[in-house]
């Protein structure tokens, strides 16, 4: 922490409540006034969580500044070395337990004063910094910059502005008469948050719906793993001034602080928490446990050979490598004591002995188990199963092979799922021809309705894609074992050098048979509000589960969205720690085709009508999906940030009525979303 006026470095870190505790320099009285009775410098500090009065010895009266909390009992170390009046350097070793500067509070809440922090150095660390598990960084005045960004009256309540600080940009926010500032880009895909929705203390991303607390910068709704840095804001002579750490200003993201494992012995066949699957549910579960102060062993195993990567990008960016798609590096996981076992496929679970058996015949026991194995492709019955160059898009290597084989060749896509359609769109500028085979007459009709489906189909046809609808594959014909033709049941023969099958997927839960973990007739695992299965200590999340969804009166539903898997991972982690949380998230989905983005929020299963505003033929529209008189979901193209705004209303629990959207007047939406 750095004093806003005299640039004294003030580091305060609570040992047990681990919060960043702000105080002011007693020489210049910047931020909070805490006056010492002896020398008029600094005397008292109040812990933001416990709320204890922390007595401390002032640097003007004593060389050692050691704070002891009267309630928690936390030990706090302050180093105050740059103030001209105090030339003191303190080095203390905290005995009894290794002090991790990144530990967060037990309830995961940041200090209420976190908006005043010049950066998150004491409570948070970036991916790169975390990898080295380095001690606290001591920032110097030259590490910061200040800029007057606007007049105090330039922003009304509820407004945001992206401002230039010279070496970077920040998002300035005014809500309830208070200013705050944080990173201006969503850490997920870099969306400009100034175009998002400000509502009730958070900003929602206009592209994919992630939410960030305007005081702490913490991510509160997914997708994404990282939070935003926050910057000091003060008002002087009606000028709004932002003080920012240069490094945070450039990075525009930070990872939440995480605890370390107190006793790791990777040679043992036991893990306190065993996570099967390294997708978003598994990864968020592991990170949430560490963020919430869990200090026992965590092992995450996956059948993939890569660290966690951004799977939705596979079908949109076929040439991206595993390194380019990476969500977390091996170094990052190791720095936070999250053990990753790759190419480790689970084949059986024994809930009586609390053990998982893997394909290599190894075995690991657990105290808590989280199953997040995701989906597997649905098998298709046709002749010629041994023909090569036929792919189910599952890995970066699959995507790279498809892109390479399709170059100036003939590509055939089987299925009109989002994955299949996205692959077709991605291949049009590479392949000689692209053909799509679909069992339905119109793509996306069940999910988006006939009008939207027809408009998207027209977009593909305009881009040289040929459709063979109401059809199925009969045979794959090859030459020297490599695909050359696809024969349809109608008798039509298509030239094909590469084929991608995108006919849907199902839960990857075959290994749970005879485990005692209950599954329904389709292989989905029912869970409760804490993501726990019928077996004590066994949790599940992501594509494989049906869970109580508040938007449908807690009816158990399956929502196989990337964003929802993040939510399940966090809920499972909190459930394991005995701190259950209610899922209030609004499902959010997106797709990209030919440079155009489709956004979707809500749960529209079983909709009976679609109300469209805008021009669907021009792909500039918003579609409201209704069940009876209630709007249950929304989709749009070229209409941002309407989907994020509707998501805010749905999240608040307010009902959107069909009559509200039939008129075309959107003023009601702005009022409710603000």
From TrEMBL:
Gene Ontology biological-process annotations: execution phase of apoptosis
Transmembrane segments: 20-46, 53-82
Domain Rieske intervals: 147-242
Presence of the UniProt keyword Transmembrane helix in the record: yes
SUPFAM superfamilies, sorted: FAD/NAD(P)-binding domain, FAD/NAD-linked reductases, dimerisation (C-terminal) domain, ISP domain
GO MF annotation, one: oxidoreductase activity, acting on NAD(P)H
Transmembrane found in the keyword field: yes
Similarity section: Belongs to the FAD-dependent oxidoreductase family.
Gene Ontology annotations for the cellular component aspect, listed alphabetically: mitochondrion
Name of the featured protein: Rieske domain-containing protein
One Pfam family it belongs to: Rieske
Keyword terms, alphabetized: 2Fe-2S, FAD, Flavoprotein, Iron, Iron-sulfur, Membrane, Metal-binding, Oxidoreductase, Transmembrane, Transmembrane helix
InterPro entries: FAD-oxidoreductase/Apoptosis (IPR050446), FAD/NAD-bd_sf (IPR036188), FAD/NAD-binding_dom (IPR023753), FAD/NAD-linked_Rdtase_dimer_sf (IPR016156), Reductase_C (IPR028202), Rieske_2Fe-2S (IPR017941), Rieske_2Fe-2S_sf (IPR036922)
């Amino acid at each position: 922490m750095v004093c806003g006026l005299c640039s004294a470095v003030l580091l305060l870190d609570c040992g047990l409540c681990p919060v960043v505790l702000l105080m002011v320099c007693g020489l210049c009285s910047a931020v909070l006034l805490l006056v010492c009775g002896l020398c008029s410098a600094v005397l008292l500090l109040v812990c933001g969580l416990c709320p204890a009065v922390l007595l401390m010895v002032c640097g003007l009266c004593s060389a050692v500044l050691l704070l002891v909390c009267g309630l928690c009992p936390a030990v706090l170390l302050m180093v105050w070395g740059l103030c001209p009046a105090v030339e003191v350097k303190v080095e203390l070793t905290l005995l009894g337990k290794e002090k991790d500067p990144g530990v967060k509070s037990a309830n995961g809440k940041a200090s209420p004063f976190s908006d005043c922090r010049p950066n998150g150095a004491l409570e948070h660390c970036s991916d790169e910094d975390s990898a080295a598990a380095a001690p606290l960084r001591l920032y110097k005045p030259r590490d910061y910059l200040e800029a007057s960004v606007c007049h105090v009256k330039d922003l009304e309540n509820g407004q945001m502005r992206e401002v230039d600080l010279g070496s970077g940009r920040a998002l300035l926010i005014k809500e309830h008469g208070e200013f705050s500032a944080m990173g201006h880009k969503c850490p997920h895909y870099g969306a400009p948050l100034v175009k998002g929705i400000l509502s009730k203390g958070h900003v929602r991303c206009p592209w994919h719906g992630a939410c960030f607390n305007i005081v702490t910068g913490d991510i509160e709704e997914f997708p994404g793993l990282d939070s935003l840095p926050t910057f000091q804001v003060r008002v002087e002579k009606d000028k709004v001034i932002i003080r920012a750490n240069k490094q945070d200003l450039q990075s525009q993201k930070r990872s939440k602080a995480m605890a370390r494992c107190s006793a790791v012995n990777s040679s043992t066949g036991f893990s306190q928490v065993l996570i099967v699957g390294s997708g978003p549910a598994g990864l968020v579960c592991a990170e949430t446990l560490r963020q919430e102060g869990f200090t026992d062993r965590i092992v995450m195993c996956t059948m993939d050979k890569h660290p966690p990567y951004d799977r939705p990008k596979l079908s949109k960016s076929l040439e991206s490598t595993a390194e380019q798609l990476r969500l977390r590096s091996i170094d990052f996981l190791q720095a936070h004591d999250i053990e990753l076992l790759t190419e480790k496929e689970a084949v059986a679970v024994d809930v009586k002995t609390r053990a998982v058996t893997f394909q290599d015949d190894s075995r690991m026991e657990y105290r808590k188990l989280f199953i997040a194995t995701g989906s597997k492709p649905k098998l298709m019955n046709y002749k010629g199963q041994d023909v090569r160059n036929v792919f189910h898009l599952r890995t970066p290597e699959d995507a790279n092979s498809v892109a390479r084989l399709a170059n100036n060749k003939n590509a055939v896509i089987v299925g009109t799922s989002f994955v299949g359609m996205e692959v077709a769109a991605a291949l049009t500028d590479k392949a000689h021809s692209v053909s799509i085979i679909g069992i339905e007459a119109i793509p996306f009709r069940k999910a988006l309705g006939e009008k939207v489906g027809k408009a998207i189909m027209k977009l593909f046809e305009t881009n040289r894609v040929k459709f063979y609808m109401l059809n199925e594959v009969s045979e794959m014909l090859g030459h020297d074992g490599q695909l050359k033709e696809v024969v349809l049941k109608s008798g039509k023969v298509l030239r094909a050098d590469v084929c991608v099958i995108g006919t849907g997927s199902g839960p990857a839960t075959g290994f749970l048979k005879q485990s005692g973990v209950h599954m329904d007739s389709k292989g989905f695992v029912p869970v409760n509000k804490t993501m726990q299965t019928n077996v004590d200590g066994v949790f599940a999340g992501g594509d494989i589960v049906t869970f109580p969804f508040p938007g449908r009166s807690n009816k158990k539903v399956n929502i196989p969205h990337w964003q929802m898997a993040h939510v399940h991972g966090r809920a499972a982690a909190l459930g394991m720690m005995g701190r259950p949380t209610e899922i209030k998230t609004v499902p959010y989905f997106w797709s990209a085709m030919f440079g155009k983005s489709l956004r979707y929020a809500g749960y529209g299963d079983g909709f009976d009508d679609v109300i469209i505003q805008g021009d669907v033929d021009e792909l500039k529209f918003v579609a409201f999906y209704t069940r009876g008189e209630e709007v249950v979901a929304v989709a749009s193209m070229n209409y941002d940030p309407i989907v994020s705004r509707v998501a805010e209303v749905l999240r608040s629990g307010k009902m959107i009525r069909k009559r509200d959207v039939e008129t075309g007047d959107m003023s009601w939406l702005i009022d409710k979303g603000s």
